[in-house]
Amino acid sequence: MPQRICILETDNLRPELVDQYKGYGHMFQQLFATQPIAAEFEVYNVVKGEYPPEDRRYDAYLITGSKADSFGSDPWIEALRGYVLKLYQRGDKLLGVCFGHQLLALLLGGKTERASQGWGMGIHRYQVTQKPSWMTPQTDTLDMMIWHQDQVTELPQGATLLASSEFCPNAAYAIGDQVLCFQGHPEFFHDYSRDLLVLRRHAYESSLYQSAIDSLDQAHQGSAVAEWMMRFITQGKAA
Q1: Active site residue 26
Q2: 14 by DSSP, 3-state: which?
Q3: CB 150 within 8 Å of CB 115
Q4: How far is 113 from 94, CA to CA, in rounded Å?
Q5: Which domains does the chain show, CATH number per domain?
Q6: Are 101 and 181 in contact (CB under 8 A)?
Q7: Strand blocks (E) in 90-228
Q8: Active-site residue (options: 101, 124, 148, 185)
Q9: Is 98 known to be catalytic?
Q10: What is the pLDDT of residues 47-104, one digit of tens each?
Q11: Of 98, 101, 181, 227, which is the active-site residue?
Q12: Can 187 be counted among the known catalytic residues?
């Protein structure tokens, strides 16, 4: 039976990119189609105030990335924090990516802030620091697409660090068998990242822009992360 995943979409794509890439929820659906565990999805854009009906339950809830700050005071962010806290308190499984990774850390007692390291963009390599049983396929290093200027600077109490680098020490973490988060974007396509970089190139220092563009010649392990997420959701369930 497919796992039912609720995607809480926390941003809208730039208008120039919508026709080709649709939205973050659509990107995640395409990503999860590349891994072996069956899943079905419902997408709610929380920026627009969309949420599932109160009586609808899912096997997991995934919070996407966003250009917004997880520590921001926008009404939709405050509403999302309240909603996600209720999900956590009732024991639902939660997945966080980029903004979602940061929001969950902040919500559960950690610290998220603007990083002194500045912007991280392109494909970045992390050292895998723990290898739980659900982390199949296993790997010693993890290459992920990134796009962020905020970071989790302190993990919540009880969190297990899963991946780290000098640039981003808290790149992935889990809390028990309930929360799994990644700073990187497993759902980003190379073409999407390249198109977005070109659109925003004048916002970045030229050497940072060129380094990010050059990194896109490499592969990244988004499909592996998608499989880890699904195995994390299904661990302990009967086949």
Answers
A1: no
A2: coil
A3: yes
A4: 21
A5: 3-234 (3.40.50.880)
A6: yes
A7: 94-97, 111-114, 120-128, 141-148, 150-154, 159-164, 172-175, 179-182
A8: 185
A9: yes
A10: 999 999 999 999 999 999 999 999 999 999 999 999 999 999 999 999 999 999 999 9
A11: 98
A12: yes
